[in-house]
Request: fold
Amino acid sequence: MKGTFNKFAKNKFSLFGPLLIIAVISAALFYYKEAKAPADNPDIIGAPANQNENQGSPQEKNEPNIKIYEPIADQEIGLPFSIKGEARVFESTFNYRLKDGEGKVLVENHAMSNAPDIGEFGSFSLIVFSYPQSNSQKGTLEVFWFSPQDGSELDKVIIPVNFAQVETISLKAFFGNSQKDPNSLNCSKAYPVERRIAKTDLVATAALEQLLTGPNTIETNEGFFTSINPGTKLNSIKIKSGVAYADFNQMLDLQVAGSCRVSAIRAQIESTLKQFSTVKSVVISIDGRTKDILQP
Reply:
């Protein structure tokens, strides 16, 4: 009897033993696969079940470093027009370039995003107040940044645009020029650049605002520069009996020193205003003060 039982148990083990081993191995492989595989995307570890939930996150793989929200493709732009978006670029500095349909560059300049830290996105919103007349109805806006290593254009976004018909006027802003006066021998001499802007009755205000924006990239490449501090703002401008009274904020003469620099600042402001026949002389003030300002 005992021998019969042992023989039965031995046969039972030989039958169920392999089945038990197979079951254990199958369970182990199942749980290993479940733990190893991402929810939806086998290329992104820990990807959410709904990939749309992660769109717009700065950490998303292969996310563009420049995003443009305005203008959108084929939008009609006039004067002025806005550029809005986000950028994650070196020193938060990016460039924009507007071309006509023939590829001619109408305006090019740089701007900065307000990124909170290195490697993070920063939003930006800027207004382009001036660019030359386009010879075609269609054009393109390019937004990109320059590589600090080799100067190549990176992460370029190209947006097709249509030029709107707008009423415009042309006026001048006056700057120094290192090509026309390479040795800075004539500090009181300023040279004009022409700016096309939306039609306005406040031409003196518009001209000074164009002056305070400084030269754009194209003008800088032609040797133009400004001696006026960045951040300088126009408080007010009035013209009375041939005299233009221009009042600025305190940035106008902040840390300004040297007779040449002072002469250059005055020349830029005075020349910009004297382009108008109604202006014979100019009085410059800072927050209402006319004394002890722009001293050498």
Q: What stands out?
A: Confidence is low (pLDDT under 50) at residues 1-16, 18-22, 27-59.
